[in-house]
Each structure stands twice: as C-alpha cells, then as structure tokens.
C-alpha cells in the first residue's frame, strides 16, 4: 500500500472543498439546452455551447434545479415567454458550482432569466420572418381570395380536440341554414411533432384533392382547441411557414390566444383567435355573399319592373299610332298591287304575242320538214318490207327446203342431237315428227 494515499471519497471531498472555496459565488451563464427531464419534481438539464461557424458542440455540462427552486422559476418562465423550457432553447441561468463526492460535478441552477430567452426567441422569429420576405412568400396567402361560396372545408386539427368539435358544431348549427362540408386531416397540434405533422396533413390535402378528380376544398382551416400558450412554438418554424405560404388555396388559422401571434398566423390568409372564431368567419363570409345576392336580386327585379313599365308605355303609344299608319300603309300597298297587276298583264300579253309569232314561224318551217321526213321514212319501210319478204321462211319451204327443230330451236348441227331425241321437220305442206335413231 502506498504511504499517504487518499481514498476516492477523501479525494472527492478535497475536490469539493477546493471548488467550494475557489468558486464560492453564483455565475450567470449563456447556454443551449440539449436535453431536459423532470424527475420527482427535480429538473435535470444537459447544457451545450455550439461553434458559430460549424454548429458543432464545443462545451458540455450538466445542471440541476431542485424541486423547491424549479417549482418557482418554471411557471414564471412560462408566463413571461409563453414557452416551456425545452431542448434547443437558449437560456441565461444563474448557477453555482457543486461537486458531490458520490454523484460528481454539476451546476446548481438558482434562477433563469426569461427575458434573455424571450429576446433570443424574438431574434429567431424575426430571422424567419426576414427570410420569408427575402424568398418573396411572406404575403402570398394574402394575395389569394376566398371563393364566394366557401363551403368545402379541409380541416387540420387533432381529431379528439374539443376545438374541432366546436368548429364543426358551429358550422352545422348556423342560424342561416347554410350547408358546409368538412373533412378532417388529423395532425399533432402541440409538442415537438407539430411541424412535420401539419406539413404532412397539407401534403395529404394536396394529393387528395388538387391532383385528383375529387372536389377541391375552398379553403384550409388549421385549428387548435385549448392547449397551453407554450405549445405555440411548433407554429414558429420556417419549414411550416414556407409550406403554408405557398399552398395554392387560402389557409385560415385559429391556433392562438388573443395576445399571441405565431409566424403561421402572420403568413396565413386570415388569422382568428379560436376554432369557433374560424367557424364564425366562414359563416359571416357566406352571409355577406348571400346578402349581396339578395340585394342584387332586388336591384334586378326593380330594374326589370321599370324596364317592363317603360316598354308597356312604348307599346301603348305605338298601338295608338297603328290605325292611321295602317290605313296609309294599306292605301299605298293597294296602289302598288294595282300597278304590279297592270304591269303583269301587259307583260303576259307581250309574252303571249311573242310566243304565238314564234309558233307560227316554227309551223311554217316544221311542216315541209315533216312531210319530207315522212316521205323518206315510207320509202325506207318499203325497202325493208321487200327484204323481209325475201327472207320469209315460207318462200324457202316452197322452194323445197325444210327446217328441222329440236325443243323449239333450229337444228344447224347434227352432232347436237343424240339417240332418242324428238325432232320436228317443217316442209311446204305439213310437219314431220321424228325420233333420232343413230348408232355411235
């Protein structure tokens, strides 16, 4: 055994005394929360500091806040900042050094300055807002218009949230009997999963309606019923703001409280306080459209009635003028018809006279031509008659010739007949019937 050796406990106690003597006071320290957990009322925090150039951790430490202190500073921090202490948050802490022989070194937290974190959050929010403006998307939603008949609503909310139920109930029980069609796209509305969950719901809406034959919604309503103000941090992210800003249909938000406005509220088409306020907005919008249509209908009816009265007066005045105008018109038309009749009779007489003259001329020309044609045709008939007489079969029979027939047809070739055929032979005086009798 080494002489004058210390036990581990003695060494740790010595280190504890050195730290207690060497660092007797408390220190304000800036750091980022890497991890935070609360166990039996005590808070255990892992702190880090990152390099500005590489965002790589260059320092780490463990800190503790005992229950009696945590129960005071945590509610106060949340009240001032509207946020719970969480991972990724920059804080300014009042700490003192502590080394326990059994548990090692840690910083003991006695206070946290919420104004520092509030300023850091404001800087981050402002940086996001400036980037959205540089990208030219900050006011894109404001350039869209709610459709006149905004009745098909896509809702992004927690399915079990009371605010969602209140939103749907208010739309369905509106005093005017307007009909709204809502479809829920569930999403996480508090905690660290808000950003990705809401973005996924927006993508689902886009794929479901805007790339298919289904009826697209007239607007999207993002509502969050109840919940702590501290849970609004999920709506202050750049990715979510960019997705909503560039969504092709109007987005209405009802996620905050009266004094809180998230970045999502800023870039949305319309921001209201609560889900019921979102429902009231849609009902009021449709009511204004309805009132406009009613007013327009009244104007149309009035204009139509005035126009009908004016046209009725014109018809009455025209009816009074018709009898004298008709008499004058009738007289003019009768004179015109008489003149046309005289012209027609004169023209018909002239045409008949011309045609009669043409007929007389044609008759004097045609008659000699017909007589010559008839004489020529008669001569031709006589010539043909002589030829026909010369070809008369009876003359041939008188000269001693005969004609043989088979089945009514003249036989010109003996090979056409066969044994047993009946033939008929005509001579000058009479007919001879025979049966062919020949041997091959």
TrEMBL record:
One annotated GO molecular function: exodeoxyribonuclease VII activity
Keyword presence, Membrane: no
Primary location: cytoplasm
Record keywords: Cytoplasm, Exonuclease, Hydrolase, Nuclease
Any GO BP: DNA catabolic process
InterPro entries reported in the protein's UniProt record: Exonuc_VII_L, Exonuc_VII_lsu_C, OB-fold_nuc-bd_dom
Exonuclease VII large subunit C-terminal domain ranges (all copies): 137-434
OB-fold nucleic acid binding domain: residues covered: 7-112
CDD domains: ExoVII_LU_OBF
NCBIfam families from the UniProt entry: xseA
Protein name: Exodeoxyribonuclease 7 large subunit
Species assigned in the record: Prevotella koreensis
């Amino acid at each position: 055994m080494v002489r004058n050796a210390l036990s581990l406990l003695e060494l740790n106690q010595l280190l504890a005394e050195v730290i207690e003597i060497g660092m007797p006071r408390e220190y304000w320290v800036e750091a980022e929360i890497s991890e935070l957990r609360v166990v039996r009322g005590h808070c255990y925090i892992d702190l880090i500091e990152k390099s500005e150039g590489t965002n790589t951790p260059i320092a780490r430490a463990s800190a503790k806040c005992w229950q009696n202190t945590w129960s005071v500073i945590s509610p106060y921090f949340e009240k001032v900042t509207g946020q719970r202490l969480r991972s990724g948050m920059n804080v300014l802490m009042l700490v003192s050094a502590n080394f326990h022989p059994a548990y090692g070194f840690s910083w003991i937290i006695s206070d946290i300055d919420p104004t520092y974190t509030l300023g850091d959050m404001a800087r981050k929010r402002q940086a996001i807002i400036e980037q959205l403006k540089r990208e030219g998307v900050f006011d894109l939603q404001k350039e869209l218009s709610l459709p006149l008949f905004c009745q098909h609503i896509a809702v992004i909310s927690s399915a079990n949230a009371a605010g969602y139920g209140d939103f749907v109930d208010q739309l369905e029980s509106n005093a005017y009997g307007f009909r709204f069609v809502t479809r829920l796209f569930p999403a996480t509305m508090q905690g660290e999963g808000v950003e990705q969950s809401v973005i996924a719901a927006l993508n689902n809406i886009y794929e479901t309606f805007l790339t298919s034959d289904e009826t697209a919604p007239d607007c999207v309503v993002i509502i969050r019923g109840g919940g702590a103000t501290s849970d609004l941090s999920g709506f202050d992210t750049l990715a979510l703001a960019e997705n909503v800003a560039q969504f092709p249909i109007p987005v209405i938000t009802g996620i905050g409280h009266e004094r809180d406005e998230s970045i999502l509220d800023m870039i949305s088409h319309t921001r209201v306080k609560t889900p019921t306020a979102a429902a009231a907005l849609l009902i009021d919008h449709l009511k204004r459209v309805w009132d406009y249509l009613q007013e327009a209908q009244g104007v149309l009816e009035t204009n139509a009635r005035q126009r009908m009265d004016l046209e009725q007066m014109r018809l009455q005045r025209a009816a009074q003028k018709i009898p004298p105008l008709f008499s004058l018109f009738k007289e003019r038309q009768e004179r015109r018809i008489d003149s046309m009749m005289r012209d027609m009779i004169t023209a018909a007489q002239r045409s008949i006279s011309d045609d009669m003259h043409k007929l007389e001329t044609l008759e004097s020309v045609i008659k000699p031509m017909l007589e010559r044609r008839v004489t020529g045709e008669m001569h031709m008939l006589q010539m043909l008659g002589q030829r026909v007489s010369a070809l008369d079969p009876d003359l041939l029979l008188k000269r001693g010739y005969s004609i043989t027939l088979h089945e009514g047809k003249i036989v010109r070739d003996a090979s056409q007949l066969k044994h047993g055929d009946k033939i008929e032979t005509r001579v000058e005086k009479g007919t001879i019937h025979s049966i062919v009798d020949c041997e091959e």
